[in-house]
Amino acid sequence: MKLTSLAIKGDPAAGATAPRRVRLFVDRPSLGFSEAESDPATHEFVLSAADAAAGAATPLRAAKFSRVTQLAVFVADNQGGGEETRIMSLVLGGGAGDTFDVAAIKKVDGE
């Protein structure tokens, strides 16, 4: 899948529990919490309280998210700094990505 954006919406009734710092990891199937905190993320961003309440989409770099088979989303902290984070919705934007049809290749005569 090719990802172009990610929108995370926090709980508007409990604004302090909305996510703030989010770390994304592409194709890391055995990622644990300690690695998610210390390893370099594929992409990291900070949501403002308004963006978290609205579920505003965050654009993702095409070069890093052009071929994604697994996405790990790690919420490092929330708006209030507490232990509990509430996510009401998580929306991935993108599509199937570019495909290449091998059957469409035709031999060129004369070479």
Per the CATH scheme, the topology name is Jelly Rolls
Oligomeric state of shown chains = single chain
CATH level 1 name: Mainly Beta
Terminal CA distance: 36 Å
Describe the protein:
By secondary structure, the chain is mainly beta. It has a single domain, classed as PITH domain (Jelly Rolls), CATH 2.60.120. 11% of the residues lie in helices and 37% in strands. The protein has 2 helices and 6 strands. The protein has helices spanning 33-38, 49-54, and strands at residues 2-10, 19-26, 43-46, 57-59, 71-78, 87-95. The strands form 2 sheets. Strands 4-1-6 form a 3-stranded antiparallel beta sheet. A 3-stranded antiparallel beta sheet has the order 3-2-5. The model has no long low-confidence stretch (mean pLDDT 89).
Write a short abstract of this structure.
With 111 residues, the protein is mostly beta strands. The chain has helices spanning 33-38, 49-54, and strands at 2-10, 19-26, 43-46, 57-59, 71-78, 87-95.
